[in-house]
Amino acid sequence: MKPKKRVVTNRSTAADPYAAPRRRPALAGPVQARPRGPARSDAPAIPVPSRVADVDLSVDLAPARPGALALRNPILVASGTFGYGVEYGEVADVQRLGAICCKGTTLRPRFGNEPPRVTETPAGMLNSIGLQNPGVDAVIEKYAGLWATWQTPVIVNVAGESIEDYVTVVRRLDGVPGVAGIELNISCPNVGKGGLQFAVDREAASAVTAAVRRATDLPLMVKLSPNVADVRAIAKAIEDAGADAISAINTLSGMAIDRRRRRPLLGNTYGGLSGPAIKPVALRIVYEVAQTVRVPVVAIGGVSGLDDVLDFLMAGASAVQVGTAIFADPLLPERLIDELAAYCAEHGLASFRELVGVALPKGRDRPSVKGVEYRP
Ligand SMILES: Cc1cc2nc3c(=O)[nH]c(=O)nc-3n(C[C@H](O)[C@H](O)[C@H](O)COP(=O)(O)O)c2cc1C
Description:
Strand order of the largest sheet: 3-4-7-8-11-12-17-18
Number of helices: 8
Bound molecules: flavin mononucleotide
Strand content: 15-25%
């Protein structure tokens, strides 16, 4: 019998093992550096920032309310991973951040789910904290006064089980000094609809956004769930209902097994998957949503380095939130601000905004009709 031929490949394990040999494409960096000085003698000179300090990192996340959510930079921290901002005061310089999205806040205090509530996964973690928080009145009393003295805006992440819940919480936050904006966590069960999450039901997502919009003039960002078949119609309904910005994504629904005890590991059985493992999903959703809405899109999901920030910006995000990675490295958000500025200076970009959406299909008014279909 002839011995089987061993197939030797020098490709990395992540390379497509079925790929036919192709001609090597022309090398091109993600962004071509602008030529310094005029390319042609009749072309006007383009001012190119030579110093990191000259790079414009500012971004307005609620352009319809000019200045109301104007950030100094596009690096935010994600809800549930940075507490109320005060917890990291000793370690990180919170004044440098673009904005802080605080822990999910509900009408009444919540003690959260049964333990265990977190577990590590390959390239990520599962959590089922269950929105543990002291309730909106305590949040205002304990933190808002301090937030009002910060130059970093604090966006309060709001959760509820009914539209009335959301509206009541937002009414209490409206006009409170120190509260710069609202992020609606709509990945919560809508008790009136048999527990179906607001985020997975276009009508409910639209209704809660519209009701909150009527209740406040604060900048309003609504956070999408990835746990839907097609997020685009939901994103459009949220924009039409008056959201100033859309953040994407919340965690992916998952679970883990405790093999020794032969049962689900988390006290709540299900948990939300976050971390680098979810980045490709988040990137795909940001790319789709950025083609569907005109309001700013704020990317969340697995950001752990500058490359992730660049990918999300190129896919159409106007800003990014750093989440799970903060647990391992609380200084990461600050470092990303510096690294983004350095990248822009090095590539001759006056503002990071020049990167936003460069990887989107051309012609924003003709969104890609490609769905999430793929053929493995
Ligand atoms: C421990 C933990 C708690 C979270 N709590 C909230 C929350 O209260 N409200 C919310 O909207 N998202 C919450 N999230 C989701 C994050 O804000 C973020 O959307 C998600 O983790 C994906 O980003 P990442 O991969 O960078 O962590 C939480 C995530 C983690 C890991």
